[in-house]
Every structure is written in structure tokens, then in C-alpha cells.
Amino acid sequence: MPTIQELSTPHLLGIKYLSEDDIQLILETTDNFKEVLNRPIKKVPSLRDLTIANLFFENSTRTKLSFELAEKRLSADVINFAASSSSVSKGETLIDTVNNILAMKVDMVVMRHPAPGAAHFLAKNINANIINAGDGTHEHPTQALLDAYSIREKMGDLIGKKVVIVGDILHSRVALSNIFCLQKLGATVKVCGPPTLIPKYVTTLGVTVEHDIRKALAWCDVANLLRIQLERQTVKYFPSLREYALFYGVNKKMLDELDKKIVIMHPGPINRGVEVTSEVADSEHSIILSQVENGVAVRMAVLYLLATKRGK
């Protein structure tokens, strides 16, 4: 249970900068907004006086739509910005782009950017609440929060739960945020994947490494399967997607061989037949669609709690 009534920070830059109480407060606030989303009328006036800008310098489907829906459910005014159709393509700097948007009296900024630390840079230079929607290979805090909420919803608690994160750990901002979040909530974390996709520093974060997917699945209560991020890879880290699927893809036969039932997660987008088969992704083991649903409620909670920090 959180011992605080408001967040300790005016921004959400990364899970690393949140306390356990901050995370618990977000999860408990999410419970309230999950109830709102199940009502016939799914809109509340909590942020009706605020204007929020969604700045996406990288492509996104789920995260962008989830934030926009969360903002509209809270009755905020929403501005959507796509770098590909903006003056950024003409050479405008990040700070000039954002300052021009803030001149239009924007109160909060949700930003995805390919450069690690971009959200921190904004937080130091502009007067608005900043939410990091993913900065390069650094962090993706709201994804970790919705993953933790989804496990909590399915299993009741995270204390003592064993979670394995499988796949492209090296290029994944989801993996780093999940490691921080799960450990702060009392879970034990293991990572699994080809040696070339496991960063050397990862053991310094308090996680263990497993290269055998079957051993990892036998150990865990929850398996979070990550997409292979080919767009971030400048060299080949394994021979082919077919070979990756053969050695690290999760299929129904693997799950049937276990002497227990485990939970399957995926932050999306899914490469069916690579990291997971359709039979597993659509099975009773999977909470992938629950993750998507919970993403809206979690982001409503984050927006609401950060809004209460305005002017303080």
C-alpha cells in the first residue's frame, strides 16, 4: 500500500526515478480508472482545463492511440504531432519545436523520441509536465507500469513472482523499465535470449541470465516475450529469424510440457511465428489483450497524478 497521496516527481521520465510508493500509487489509481472504463459513459472531467501535446518522433500505434484515448477519456484538449510532417524535417531543433508548441499554452507533453535522454532534456528546459513514451533504447515507463498492473490483476501480487523477459534485451527499452519496475514491486527477474542480444551490464541490475528457453519457462511464473527490433540493429546478431524462432520462439508444445500453467505477455507488436506462435498468443495462457486494455487505464492514472503536481 502506498504511504503517499501524490507522486514524488512532476514528470514520468523513467521507472528508475520512481519509488515503490510512487508505483503503488499509480497502480491503485489505475484501479479507479479501470472502473471508469467499464462504465457505459467512459469519460470524466478530470483534465478538462488542460492541453496535452503528443510528440511522436518515432512510429507508434498502441502507445500513441492509448495515450490519446486516455487523454480524451479525461476530457483534456489534445494536440497530435508527427515529426515526419513537421518542421523537424526542415532542420528545426527539438527545443525550438517544443517551445513553439508550448507557446500555444500546452500544459503537458507526451514524447517518444529515438534519442536516449530526450525526455530528461525537455524536463530541464521547458515548463511543462513531461511523460516519456519511449526514448531510444533507454526506457518506456508506461509500458512497464501496464505490464506490472496486468500481472497484478492476473496473479494478485508481484511479491515473490518469477518473471522472465525473453528476446532482444540489448535494444529493448521495455526490458529495462520492466526490470526496474518488477524488482521494486518484489518480483524476481531473469532474462533469456541469444548471447549476442543480452547486454553485458544486465547482471549488474540484479537479474540472472538464461540462454535455454525451456529452462527459463520451467523456472518462471510469467514470460514476457519481446519483439526482435530489426530496425535498431546495425549488424546481424543471429543468422536468421527462422533460426531465432527455432531456438527462442515459444510454442504450445513447450507450454504443454511444463508441469504448471504460466502467464504469457508481449508488449507488441507481435511477430507471429517468430517470438511466439499464434496458438500461444491467442491461448488461455496469454494476457496480451489485457495489457492493451490496461494501457489506457494506466496512462489515465499517470496523466491524472502528474496533473495534480502542476503549479507545485
Structure description:
The chain is an alpha/beta fold and 312 residues long. The protein folds into two domains: 15-139 and 293-307, 3-Layer(aba) Sandwich (Rossmann fold), CATH 3.40.50.1370; 141-291, Rossmann fold. 38% of the residues lie in helices and 14% in strands. The protein has helices spanning 20-37, 62-73, 94-102, 118-125, 141-155, 173-184, 213-219, 241-248, 252-256, 278-281, 288-307; strands at 51-56, 77-82, 108-113, 129-135, 162-166, 188-192, 208-210, 222-225, 263-265. The strands form two sheets. A five-stranded parallel sheet has the order 7-6-5-8-9. α4 links the parallel β3 and β4. α2 packs across α11 and α5 (141-155) packs across α11. The longest helix has 20 residues, at 288-307.
Describe the secondary structure blueprint for this structure:
Elements: H1 20-37, E1 51-56, H2 62-73, E2 77-82, H3 94-102, E3 108-113, H4 118-125, E4 129-135, H5 141-155, E5 162-166, H6 173-184, E6 188-192, E7 208-210, H7 213-219, E8 222-225, H8 241-248, H9 252-256, E9 263-265, H10 278-281, H11 288-307
Parallel strand pairs: 1-2, 1-3, 3-4, 5-6, 5-8, 6-7, 8-9
Helix pairs in contact: 1-5, 1-11, 2-11, 5-6, 5-11
